[in-house]
Design a protein that fits this description.
The chain has 296 residues and is α/β, with parallel strands linked by helices.
Length: 296
Amino acid sequence: MRDPRFIINCTDRKLDLCEGPKIMGILNTTPDSFYDGGLLLGNTSDVDFDRAVTYALEMIGHGASIIDIGGESSRPGAEKISSAEEIARTAPLIALLRSKSDVVISIDTYKADVAEHALRAGANIVNDISGFTFDSNLPAICSKYNAAVILMHTPIKPELMQWSTGTDSGDEDILSRVSGFLANAIARAEKYSIENIIIDPGFGFGKSVSENFRLLALLGSLHSLGRPILAGVSRKSFLGHVITPPGDTIAPPVERLAATIAAETIALMHGASILRVHDVEAAVQCMRVVAALNEE
């Protein structure tokens, strides 16, 4: 049975998640993102838009259905930048990519003015790490442009967040906290007549290592919210913690690909509809293996 809530209308494009999971490729134009910061900067520290578009087209060629463009790092402890700088890093790139591809484009921002410039430039989805809690003007902008939204759970702003530790953040179960937060986020969106909603449990955002794994193991429970689930586990620190031998320094992001694929496989087997990834080709292979298993 085709659930209409899994057919996502994104401005003038459609993302049919009833057909099966999709891959979202990460395209950061930041100097300080935890894995790929600075990758797309030119010699003057400005964004090299031509290089960025080439990289995006490579991800599309490898099987990405969505390109998620971000201009401000959301890693723990990241410093805020102005909206003007974030717009300058993202809107021209979105316009250039839109001129070369009909791929679904997502803007990774929680700021209403950044989202509006991105949507005008050709973005289709607003990916808000705050679940509409950081900027009260953002829901109206998403509604105005008929954008789809990704609503993520985060308990605190990135500049105040710490890297994952082994200590739980509270007595209440992580699934209850995340589920309750996302239910409220969906209600906020629906208040603005936004119906094209994807939910993201926010792996790595304000959660301990054990809480991240508990959430991954219970990911299927979030289907009770009736919305497609995005899983963003790519190269995150909670994976680095468990693959590192005791007493060693945590394995850096560059060494976390195998752990990432393992976590993405688990997420797919628990019903994730979208994987947000740095490594598109590997994630597509992972997705095909899970799909073959599900056909048996």
